[in-house]
Amino acid sequence: MAEHDYEKGLTEKSRKIIYFKRDKECNFTILSLCLGSGIRLNELSNLRLRDLDLEEKQIHVLVLRKGGKKDVVVVAPPSMQDIKDYLAV
Length: 89
Known about the structure:
By secondary structure, the protein is of the alpha+beta class. It is built from 4 helices and 3 strands. The chain has helices at residues 5-8, 15-37, 41-45, 77-88; strands spanning 52-53, 58-63, 69-74. Helix 2 crosses helix 4. It is elongated, with a radius of gyration of 15 Å.
């Protein structure tokens, strides 16, 4: 699983493990949101907190491939929970 396997292959005193542990929650949430919603990275990079609708489990994205139109995308419940967990950190 992406959440645990990479970390097991790193040595405890390496720089990679330090950076991995620092950014783990953020990186995992990004991966989860991309897989759980189908949005593209450029759409994800333009997201703001106000674009998240945690109650309705959806996000409002600016879809560049459709001429910059706003669209609503449903997010899978596990991915939305990952977002909530990250925001709590």
